[in-house]
Write a structure and sequence with these properties.
Bound molecules: flavin mononucleotide
Strand content: 5-15%
Structural class: alpha/beta
Largest sheet: 8 strands, parallel
Order of helices and strands: HEHEHEHEEHEEHEHEHHEEHHHHEH
Number of helices: 14
Strand order of the largest sheet: 1-9-8-6-5-4-3-2
Number of strands: 12
Helix content: 25-40%
Shape: globular
Length: about 325
């Protein structure tokens, strides 16, 4: 039985779990209902379980849950048990629940570690991806290396560079069992990203790989679109001023243990001129100031995406 048959998903099209509130029940359920795999991004455990329950009320199709391993707390494991698929990212690969488990990787070594730890599949995440970027080579290149480094029948998926059906076809022809799109679904009607964040992405072609928004999650490069904060602080070195990166390192252990709601509250008070930026993205309902002081995560595909669309249509159009 193939991985997609085990999950019970028709199309080799997965929506990336986008954490902090961007990918909730509405987006995930729409994608799954259209035949792809919808994924709810990480939230605090109680909110995550609520989103999962809401998605279940909208669709009988499978739903995945994404967990960023550095932020996993006790209650996340209970939430994971309620999902059909658990997708993990960042850190030593570790099974969170007795469910189909896929780990997103940035290198052959990490993919091998996930295989040894009992993962059911891995995602090769390319350098062109939006959000936090684990690897350092483009997705198709990493896919080839990861496939060569694992048993021939071990399922490998691809993330990065997926905006149109031709991208999905290329990934499948290169041996991926499915393609994952983040930025394309961020620019859907159902994503909970702030409206002005979405509008700016529709207008931009440029992305930057930086470490600027690393308070609470240091040394974790992330791809963003430019805003006032990046323009103010990224002169010369896209990683960000060394003093900010040092501050992020020092405060990291404490900041990463802040409850997500408190971190989100701090994010809402950030200002472009005040260089201490956490990873929370601007969400619908947040003050407009957050759009210039919080990370506008976006992958390189942003240059090719020019309209907001319903997730069902995006999914159908990505299907080969
Ligand atoms: C807004 C945004 C948030 C993201 N959040 C997460 C996350 O919480 N967990 C995760 O595993 N990956 C996250 N990612 C990365 C995706 O899993 C995926 O690798 C990436 O979106 C693929 O590149 P693309 O955006 O160009 O499609 C995020 C990506 C974006 C754009």
């Amino acid at each position: 039985m193939t991985l997609l048959e085990r999950i019970g998903v028709e199309l080799p099209v997965f929506q990336a779990g986008m954490g902090g509130g961007i990918a909730g029940a509405e987006l995930a359920a729409a994608v799954s209902e259209a035949g792809g795999l919808g994924t709810i991004g990480i939230l605090e455990p109680a909110r995550l379980r609520k989103e999962l329950a809401a998605a279940r009320r909208s669709t009988g199709k499978p739903i995945a849950l994404n967990l960023l391993l550095p932020f996993v707390r006790g209650g996340h494991k209970e939430a994971a048990r309620e999902a059909d698929v658990v997708i993990t990212h960042w850190g030593a690969p570790k099974r969170m629940a007795d469910r189909v488990w896929i780990h997103q990787c940035g290198s052959v070594e990490e993919a091998r570690a996930a295989h040894v730890a009992g993962a059911d599949g891995v995602i090769a995440q390319g350098l062109e991806s939006g959000g936090h970027v684990r690897g350092s080579v483009p997705a198709l290149e990493l896919l080839e290396r990861v496939r060569a480094g694992l048993p021939a029948d071990f399922p490998v998926l691809l993330a990065g560079g997926i905006a149109e059906v031709a991208d999905v076809r290329r990934a499948l022809e290169a041996g991926a069992v499915a393609a994952i799109a983040g930025t394309r679904y961020l620019l859907s009607e159902e994503s909970q990203a702030h409206d002005e964040y979405k509008r700016r992405l529709l207008d931009t072609e440029e992305t930057i790989l930086t470490e600027l928004f690393g308070a609470g999650w240091p040394s974790a490069p992330h791809r963003v679109a430019p805003n006032a904060a990046t323009e103010r602080w990224l002169r010369g070195d896209n990683r960000g001023p060394s003093a900010i990166r040092l501050l992020n390192q020092v405060s990291g252990p404490l900041m990463s243990r802040l409850p997500q709601q408190l971190a989100a509250r701090m994010a809402r008070s950030q200002r472009p001129g005040m260089p201490f930026y956490g990873p929370a993205p601007p969400l619908q309902g947040d003050p407009d100031t957050t759009v210039d002081a919080c990370p506008l995560y976006a992958g390189e595909t942003v240059a090719r995406i020019h309209e907001l669309r319903p997730a069902v249509e995006i999914t159908r159009d990505l299907a080969p």
